[in-house]
Amino acid sequence: METVVRNYKAKDYKSEVKPIWCPGCGDYTVLNAVTRALAELALPPHEVAIVSGIGCSSRIPAYTNVYGFHGVHGRALPVATGLKLARPDLTVLVTGGDGDGFSIGGNHFMHACRRNVDLTYIVMDNQVYGMTKGQASPTTAPDWEGSKLTPQGTGINPFQPLVIGLASGANFIARVSSSDPVNMAQIIVQAVRHPGFSLVQVLSPCVTFRPEQSVWRDYVRTAEVDYTDDAARAARRLMTDDGFNVGKVLFKGSRAPYRPEFERSSGSIAELESRFML
Amino acid sequence: MKETQTDGIEVQTVPQLLAHALALETEASERYGELADQMEIHRKTAVAAIFRRLEVAEKQHLAGLAALCKDVELPHYAPWDFKWSSNEGPETIDIGRVSYQLSVREAVLLALEHERRATQFYVDVAAAAKAPDVIALARQFADEEREHSGWLQNCLAECGADDSKASEDPDPPLCQE
Amino acid sequence: MTTHSVSLVIAGSGGAGVVTAGSLLLNAAAKTGWYALMSRSSGPQIRGGEAATMLRFATKPILSHDDSFHLLMAIDWDNINRFSAEIPLTGNSLIVGDPAHGPCPAALLAAQPRQAALALTDIAEKIEGGRPNMVALGAIAAMIGLPPQAMQAVVEQYLRRKGQAAIDASMAAFHAGFAAAADLPAIPKLPAISSETTSRWSITGNEATGLGILRGGVRFVAAYPITPATEVLEWLAPSLAKVGGVLVQAEDELSSINQIIGASYGGVPAMTATSGPGLSLMVEALGLAVAAEVPVVVVDAMRVGPSTGIATKSEQSDLNIAVYGMHGDAPHIVVAANSVADCLFTSQWAVHLAEAMQAPAIVLTDQSMGQSRAILPRPAQFAFSGQRVTALAAAEGERYQRYAVNASGISPMAIPGTPGLAHTADGLEHNQFGIPSSQASDHQAQMDKRSRKLTQFNYGDHWADIVDTDAGPGDIALITWGSSTGPAREALQRFSAAGGKARLISVRLIAPVQPDRMAAALAGVTRALVIEQSHSGQFYRMLRAFYDLPPDTRSLHQAGPLAFGPGRILEQLTSWSV
């Protein structure tokens, strides 16, 4: 028998600002999944914050009724880190794209996984920089010739963000597809509930600059095995998967989340000053 | 995504049916509204009008449903606890199925497909239910869904064949940030 | 050298313990009731390199290092040439060296100072556990009038853990040196203070900065180490914990500045400290703080630039980036501390300003203030009433306007966790609701708001320190900022003692500019000297751009790391007086 008081429905978490994403964009499903997840978690909107960087997917905060912070390119994770450390009472989500998160934000991504503050990071990975009209990103295949900046393809192997996240210490790793928003909502609920840094990669096609990604809905398949808590096993699985096994948690670690101990005023400023006195 | 038809087998009581119907219709009306918003923002007024009309129809349906649910204690289902055969509710158009180039005709066909799925869901519930009141209610809901399909069939007939040209846009995409 | 003070340098290398000697001497001077200023210089090695400790002692509060040193005590001569430009000597100066290390290098003899020998190594060897640096301290103590019992107390505390034998050995060496000084030529002596009239502190500029930050109310700090700012953060780490705050080490400056923006958005006053290269990295995020109207404080302990520059030396050349560094028109607050003590006041004030105006405030200090230790009068307490204006509840039926356009330009800020006031803070230009907008009217309105909130704020008298000679201001002014203030103040004091008339204006509020107040301060002034430690004269250019200056305004500027001596400034004042 349910004992949770559910005061909010999914639509209560949406603002009246209409998204300007292209019709068919995977980001719509993420917005839906996030709001559904928040409703299931029964979190009051004013106790939730979404932090984002720059890019199409980073526009999410304005489309919600929770507290939002739309920062600069690649720096969402540090803003979210500072916010959560200063306000551990808030539930803090971070949203962004593959360029924002893994290119300019790559260093912060590694250290956020390593630091393991209790955050949930949802990366909408469409293997392109959509907002700036279609350049290759760190997850783009080396032979994609659709960008004017790299017309012969980048020639550089893409990142495997989940592997890097695992190696850097992320405490929860999952991959979902924007073609299944209900499953996505379920995974997001688990990600938020799991303490520490939770990483959710969303395969989220860009309908305008990567229309060929429409086949992803056919490529994706439900992951065959449940999550492991063994990092080495997870590493082997992640290094050998083709990037389309979705719908399940891949790794759940047991690191304690980073939360510096606030010694509730064990001293005072006067006491600190006394050390300077002669 | 599920391969086998498991719809309806779990729905055996009126509260369960009402909970499913409420979720199904709420999600459908919200989705039609979302799609209408998207099309309006992108100035596809004719397509937006189709979705907006469907949103209104669903909301009316919801109002009637809400009246039925008054004073009934409904079981809570997490979104993933519903045994739909699709990822979201049967009447909910997957956002990935639309695009900027969507024509009126395609929009109508898409809606029709989903109205028929909704109808089928209630038919399946009626077929698998044991209690007479559940069966009756499920059949009633199925009939209501068929009404929507009727309207959409008319729309289809009115759609011109040259509708597909209207969905072209010579301007290239722009960057905004 | 007319003030009653004595200046000396201790130099040596490779385990000579110069830095330790300087600290012991400073602490002993503190017990004697003197005021002091101690700075250090060293080679690039992490250990064992050449080092020099510069000390000035006086019976009154000290404003700056003197023009030259009375005494150079060289424990050895290893690479002491490195410091020759930083140890100005005159014909009256005395160089004391250990004959065991050979003759004094020619580079130090240009002014033909007096020289004397003291066999530090020899004397130390005759004492079990004795070290040359303690022998040197003994000689110095005798020469400057430091009572031995002051050093006794200091050494007991310093060597407490090593046991009585170590204490006895050190003091034996000290006393041997004390006795040996009888054969050395004289240098000025200071009288011991019999009773304490003012309570005094021993503090560095970096510590004072940290304390000011805490007094101002900061409780979240993100830290990335960089010379010479690291000590601010290292002082804050345990201190914050004591008052219920948190310090987190970041992976780089891009992270630290964004973390403090996040924490501040969450309602906790936040800061970080860095130097020039770090500030360069932070500039984009500072613009974000301007646009999203989030208060943060960034301390820039300036070092010699550009680029990696000279990390361990001081310069006043980050004025430009502090004031002009952000792209777009991004009005914000820049304040500058002008002494070790002022690091405390100015940092505290910066927190108050940032929080009151919901904007970033950059605090300019520098290596010379930050890493110098001063014995100074106990700083006053300052109570600032300004606090962040927060929105507490949603108005009935109204939608919350985070960026409401009002008369003051300061719109109440909703803290996350407050029901009904959720909004998105944004670096994108926005309307009063915070919704992104590309409309010209919204941009204009928000630009006006963000500018107005700073220009209409009442900064009070703290915008500058204004000091006049005893005979009144006259028609001459010294205009300066930061650490150039110290020598300018001392020059003014000497000028005053000689009956001269002049006014000193040390600007603390660098931005936003205060043309009306400056005009009032310069009333009747026809000649002005602008003093700063920058190769291109950044401050002079800024004054020219924003202020009306007297007809005969000159710029006295030079690159770091050498500071101005008071005498050089006095020369200009004097030449104008004839």
Poorly predicted runs of 5 or more residues of chain C: none
**Strands across the major sheet of chain A, in which order?**
2-1-3-4-6-5-9
CATH topology type of chain A: Rossmann fold
Query: By helix and strand content of chain C, what is the structural category?
Result: alpha/beta
CATH topology of the largest domain in chain C: Pyruvate-ferredoxin Oxidoreductase, domain 3
Q: Whole-number radius of gyration of chain C?
A: 26 Å
- Strands of chain C, count: 23
Shape of chain C: globular
Distance between the termini of chain A: 67 Å
Which oligomeric state applies? heterotrimer
CATH architecture of chain A: 3-Layer(aba) Sandwich
pLDDT average of chain C, as an integer?
95
Which descriptors would you attach to this protein?
heterotrimer; B: mainly alpha; Ferritin; 4 helices; disordered N terminus; C: 578 residues; alpha/beta; Pyruvate-ferredoxin Oxidoreductase, domain 3; Rossmann fold; eight-stranded mixed sheet; seven-stranded mixed sheet; 17 helices; 20% strand; globular
Description:
- The complex is a heterotrimer of chains A (278), B (177) and C (578).
- With 278 residues, chain A is of the alpha/beta class.
- Chain A is 30% helix and 16% strand.
- Chain A has a single domain (10-274), classed as 3-Layer(aba) Sandwich (Rossmann fold).
- In chain A, the strands form two sheets. In chain A, strands 2-1-3-4-6-5-9 form a seven-stranded mixed β-sheet, sandwiched between helices. A two-stranded parallel ribbon of chain A has the order 7-8.
- Chain B has a single domain (14-163), classed as Ferritin, CATH 1.20.1260.
- Chain B is elongated, with a radius of gyration of 18 Å.
- With 177 residues, chain B is an all-alpha fold.
- Chain B has helices spanning 14-41, 45-69, 104-128, 132-158.
- Chain C has 578 residues and is α/β, with parallel strands linked by helices.
- Chain C has four domains: 5-183, 3-Layer(aba) Sandwich (Pyruvate-ferredoxin Oxidoreductase, domain 3); 202-377, Rossmann fold (3-Layer(aba) Sandwich), CATH 3.40.50; 395-457, no CATH class; 460-577, 3-Layer(aba) Sandwich (Rossmann fold), CATH 3.40.50.
- Chain C is built from 17 helices and 23 strands.
- Chain C has helices at residues 18-32, 120-125, 132-144, 148-158, 164-180, 205-216, 230-242, 253-265, 276-292, 319-324, 340-357, 367-370, 440-455, 485-497, 515-521, 538-546, 566-577, and strands spanning 5-12, 35-42, 51-58, 71-74, 94-97, 114-117, 200-204, 220-223, 246-249, 270-274, 296-302, 333-336, 360-366, 373-377, 390-391, 413-414, 424-426, 464-468, 476-480, 503-507, 509-511, 527-532, 552-557.
- In chain C, helix 9 links the parallel strand 10 and strand 11.
- In chain C, helix 1 (18-32) packs across helix 4, helix 3 (132-144) packs across helix 5 and helix 4 (148-158) packs antiparallel against helix 5.
- The radius of gyration of chain C is 26 Å and the shape is globular.
- Chain C starts with a strand and ends with a helix.
- Classes of the chains: A alpha/beta (278), B mainly alpha (177), C alpha/beta (578).
- Chains in contact: A-B, A-C.
- The interface between A and B is large, with 40 and 31 residues.
